[in-house]
Amino acid sequence: MKILVVDDELVNRKKMEKILTSFGECDAVDSGEAALKAIATGIEQGEAFDLITLDVSMPQMDGTEVLYEIRRIEEQRNIPKENRAKVIMVTCQSDKDTVITCMQAGCDSYIIKPFDRTIIGERLGEFGMIPLVPVHLGQSIRKLVMETINNFNQGKLRMPVLPQISREIEAAMSRPSGTEELAGIIEKDSVISVKIIATANSPLYTGGEKVQDLRTAIARIGAREIQTIVSALANRNLYKSKHKLFKELLKKLWLHSLSCAYCCRAISAKLGDRDSSNVFLMGLTHDIGTVLLLKSIGDIAPDTMTLDTNELMESLIDVNASFGSAILTDLGFGAEFSDVVRLHRWSSFENGTRKEILIVNLAEKVSTKINFGFFDSDADLSNLESAMTLGIDDKGLAEVAEEVKEGMKDIERIFN
Questions:
Q1: Is the dihedral of CA 51, 146, 301, 255 positive or negative?
Q2: Per-residue model confidence (pLDDT) at position 397
Q3: Nearest-5° Cα angle at 238, 237 to 244
Q4: Which CATH superfamily is domain 139-158+236-416 in?
Q5: Helix (H, G, I), strand (E, B) or coil at 45
Q6: d(CA 53, CA 110)
Q7: Res 132 pLDDT > 70
Q8: Angle at the Cα of 22 (from 18 to 24), degrees rounded to 5?
């Protein structure tokens, strides 16, 4: 059996390829355009693909567009319906409209992320390609991930709530407040006050003499960024777990989120933006789906359960974008935030892509380069489409990386 995997996301592509290799000869491509070329070549050479897995969400050509083209090519070549490739759509979106659209476009089945070998085997069994395999989830990672997502959909997942100090600052920011009012609010929490002053003296903010009082620290950092930093400090408990493995992963994710936030700030400054508070917060929240999944799974996973870290990370990346986007929407964030979560991991971008999405994409790459990555990712900063579109050259990226790397030495200590 000849199989083609089509997915722009490296981790998902490798996961699917690894599973399907045990069922047949498997090729993989990272775009719709590359898929159509491979399919046409296969047909011309008499080696057409028997099975194609096609990710729904891809840049340039999404999965539904690619599917239409696949069926058009098969019709032009007069391939009988019974000999056409079986196409399985892979999607994070379980909504009825997406599934109906894919079925109307000519797909044979669909899989909702996260998936595993058992689920793939079950689909192939439906086509008569292999014997049907019963699904035995047990206490699998996939079951825990799906349980968390189902709890969210049913309103059973406890969402993070802004602590009192964050709510007071948020209210103050809605008014023409000054440094004095913000300082009065922050002074109520001595720990956060000390950390704000320490942050202002870190390499990421230093601009002269050492800051020794809260009001000067607020003036140096900026009121809007203060709001985000206080929320980050106050919500540090969100990144904690009693389960040893999840405790370690959440700490790593916490540092990754901070690094991304400061990378976003540095990139924004390179672009000449005066207000970087929005992209700072986007960098801090871009993996919110993974945060709540790890937190929730860590709370329900038995201490005696043996966990495959690779399987866990693969399952997280499967659903991180759609789950995180839904969470931010539920928390009242605007579409620009949920779009960042959904689209920032793409490797190529359509014309007119929002600048913030490109900045967060670039921030993730830089964070990985300076050893603050979370998901396995290519740390090569050369020839990145997001950098080229933003107009940041290799020298500029190197300066951002060095600035954040030096700053994180202090920030890591201050925020922990």
A1: positive
A2: 94
A3: 80
A4: Hypothetical protein af1432 (1.10.3210.10)
A5: coil
A6: 9
A7: no
A8: 105
